[in-house]
Design brief:
This protein has 256 residues and is mainly α. It has a domain of 66 residues. The chain is built from 14 helices and two strands. It has a two-stranded antiparallel sheet. It is flat and about 60 Å long. The two termini are 28 Å apart.
Length: 256
C-alpha cells in the first residue's frame, strides 16, 4: 500500500508539472487548442484478430504501442498521429487495462492536439474502472489544462480525493487532502491562472523543439507573458497564489 500511495501522491501540482515537462518529446503536429475540438471525426480503430484471446491481443498491441512511442525518429517525422488508434484498440480489447488510458494525456491530448479524444478515452476508462484514483486525476488535468471546464476538473479531482480517503484510510488522507485543496482552489481565478502560468512556463523552459515552445508561448500570451527582445519571457502583470495555497497543497488543509 505504501508503494501505491507514493506512486499516486507526489503532490497535485508536481503531478501536473511532471506531465507538462514531457513536452520536449512531442512532435511538430500538436499545437494545443484553447478548447476541445470536435470538428474532425475520430481516427479509425484498428481491427486486431483476437481469436478468442482478447487480453493477449491487447498485450501485444500494448508492446507495439510502447515501441511506437519510443521511436524518437518517427516522433520527429510523424508526431503522435496514431496514438488514439493504438489506445482505442488496446482498450476495446481489454477495457480494464489502465496504463493505456493514462497515456491519453500526453500522447493524445497534447501530442495529437486532440484533448476531446483524450476525454473520450478517459471517460471510457472510468466506465470500466470507476474506482481508479489515477484516471480521475488525469481526467481532471485534461479539463484543467486544455478544455477550461474547471467545474468538471474540480469534480474529477474531488472524486480522486474521496477514493484515496476511502481506499487507504488514514494513510491516504494527505493525498486526499492535496487533491481536495487543489480542487477547491480551481474555483478561484487567481489560483487557476497562477497554476496554469507556472505549468506553461515550465513547458516553455524545458521544450526541446521549436513547435513545443511556440505552443507554450501561445498559452502564456493569454496569461500575460510575452517574449522580450533578448528572448526571455517578460511578465506583463504579476500573479500570486492565494494565501496558504502552496502550504495547503503540501500539508493539506489546516485542522479546524
Amino acid at each position: 500500500m505504501a508503494n501505491t500511495l507514493r506512486a499516486l501522491g507526489a503532490g497535485a501540482v508536481c503531478c501536473a508539472l511532471m506531465l507538462a515537462l514531457q513536452a520536449n518529446r512531442l512532435a511538430a503536429n500538436r499545437a494545443v487548442p484553447q478548447a476541445f475540438r470536435t470538428d474532425h471525426p475520430p481516427l479509425p480503430v484498428s481491427s486486431v484478430p483476437a481469436l478468442g484471446h482478447r487480453n493477449l491481443a491487447a498485450d501485444w498491441l500494448w508492446l507495439r504501442f510502447v515501441q511506437y512511442l519510443g521511436d524518437h525518429r518517427m516522433r520527429q517525422r510523424l508526431g503522435y498521429t496514431d496514438s488514439y488508434t493504438f489506445i482505442d484498440a488496446i482498450n476495446r480489447l481489454n477495457p480494464h487495462f489502465e496504463p493505456a488510458y493514462l497515456l491519453a494525456n500526453l500522447s493524445v491530448a497534447y501530442g495529437m492536439g486532440r484533448p476531446d479524444l483524450a476525454e473520450r478515452l478517459l471517460a471510457r476508462g472510468l466506465r470500466h474502472n470507476p474506482d481508479s484514483i489515477a484516471l480521475w486525476q488525469f481526467r481532471g488535468f485534461v479539463h484543467f489544462l486544455y478544455s477550461g471546464n474547471h467545474p468538471l476538473a474540480v469534480n474529477c479531482l474531488r472524486r480522486a480525493a474521496g477514493l484515496a480517503a476511502v481506499r487507504f484510510g488514514a494513510a491516504g488522507q494527505i493525498l486526499a487532502n492535496q487533491w481536495w485543496v487543489l480542487s477547491k482552489h480551481l474555483e478561484s481565478a487567481p489560483a487557476v491562472n497562477w497554476t496554469r502560468r507556472t505549468i506553461w512556463q515550465e513547458i516553455y523552459a524545458n521544450a526541446g523543439d521549436g513547435p513545443t515552445r511556440r505552443a507554450a508561448l501561445a498559452q502564456l500570451r493569454t496569461l500575460g507573458v510575452v517574449p522580450a527582445k533578448d528572448g526571455r519571457l517578460r511578465v506583463q502583470y504579476s500573479l500570486y497564489p492565494p494565501t496558504g495555497y502552496l502550504k495547503s497543497l503540501a500539508n493539506g488543509p489546516p485542522a479546524p
